[in-house]
Design brief:
Layout: E1 2-5, E2 12-18, H1 32-52, E3 58-64, H2 80-91, E4 98-105, E5 114-116, H3 122-134, E6 141-143, H4 152-157, E7 162-166, H5 192-208
Bound molecules: zinc ion.
Length: about 210
């Protein structure tokens, strides 16, 4: 599902989240953080950006399906929506017009520590650090220990600048990640403050990219 907020130029910023949840976990699996949190924030970002329009850049708000793999990530399992959209933009000749693809995933954890995967564009990492610094929340943003296969990857392969805003440390203690893809991924693990922090930083970042 795509929404477009027209801008004054043909430059484009893509804001994306997957809205599917992992299948086959349990009947009562909620997926509150993965990916209720980022889907919710995307709706709010769309509302705010529409209110501020027109910006210099156009905004594409992308709700991606099929991020989660059914058995194991591979060419035909997982990242379906992002692969499709990246290809669409690329084939329409739009890849060079893309200023940034900002993927949001698992951003609602009460204990918010955004750890950016190493396979993000350096320029956008600097931009998000600067925006976080401006808002006084820089300590909650860092670079993680490795790369992550997420929805930003197909866009990166298609030559677009990407960033994956993710807190992939979601559990009862550091390093356990035991709320991820389990029935513990419930709304009580999230906080409005975390959603607000990420939303504010992303808005500041896209403002700075104008
Ligand atoms: Zn997931």
């Amino acid at each position: 599902m795509l929404a477009r907020i027209p801008g004054k130029t043909d430059r484009l910023i893509v804001l994306a989240s997957h809205f599917d949840t992992k299948s086959g976990i349990a009947k009562n699996f909620q997926g509150a953080n993965d990916s209720g949190s980022s889907s919710g924030i995307l709706l709010e970002l769309a509302r705010v950006l529409k209110h501020r329009a027109p910006s210099e850049t156009e905004f594409m708000i992308a709700f991606l399906d099929g991020e989660e793999c059914r058995t194991e990530y591979g060419p035909h399992d997982g990242l379906h929506g992002s692969r499709h959209l990246a290809q669409q933009i690329y084939e329409a000749g739009g890849a060079t017009k893309v200023e940034a693809v900002i993927v949001l995933d698992m951003i609602g954890d009460k204990d918010l520590n955004i750890s950016l995967p190493q396979n993000c564009s350096r320029k956008l990492v600097k931009e998000i650090f600067y925006a976080a610094h401006e808002l006084g929340v820089r300590p909650q943003f860092s670079i993680g220990p490795g790369s992550i296969l997420d929805d930003h990857v197909p866009f990166q392969i298609a030559g677009m600048p990407v960033i994956d805003v993710i807190d992939f440390n979601y559990g009862s203690a550091p390093g356990l990640n035991d709320y991820w893809h389990t029935t513990n991924d419930t709304i009580d693990k999230l906080s409005v403050k975390s959603l607000q922090t990420v939303g504010d930083v992303v808005l500041k970042m896209v403002e700075n990219l104008q």
